[in-house]
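ok trying this again, last paste got cut off
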Amino acid sequence: MSFAFLKSWPARVVTILLLAQAGVMYSSIRPEMVPPGRPLAQFPISIGTWQLRQEGYVDQETQAVLQADDLLTRMYADTAAPRAADLYIAAFRSQRNGKAPHSPKNCLPGAGWTPLEQNEIQVDVGAPKPISVNRYVIAHGDARSVVLYWYQSRDRSVASEYTAKFWVVADAIRYNRTDTALIRVIVPIVNQDTQAADRTAADFVKAVFGTIRQFLPA
């Protein structure tokens, strides 16, 4: 049997998609292993020099749209410097029933924010290697903010939505689990100093990353 057709890039893509679909169908007939996670309501109010300033609220209508199994939205302030950061975590224990994180690149424009810059950066979180995160600069009227976000599954941190979906399929086949979490950090840009906001966002991610990992399934 000749497999010469696999030298074609479109054929390879179709083959991968078909294999992924077959894997999902196979894994769907087995009871899913839904790993436990600590309630995000127990997330510490103090992490290093970062202290809880304001507890966010997500109304029932928004929760119904997000479909996350657990949510956290808070503002933290640095007691060692005049700076603050918003933290948002949406945890999904399973994605088999159509539930999945809503990408900020779609949600933020829907909330009236306009993306001005976007790229992928590395953040040193003290782990064996830096993690890749999405970076956006967004605008709403005269307000500007830096946004960092990524997807956390097991011990894996992923920036790309497409890569995250690939690993959902891979984990479903190999481990019979589809849990993931969307982590988002927003820092306002003060006095048009984007670099200061970038530093604050990266410092905050580094400060809270280890704690976030403790609250998500390993």
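PB: full thing came through this time. The chain has one domain: 31-215.
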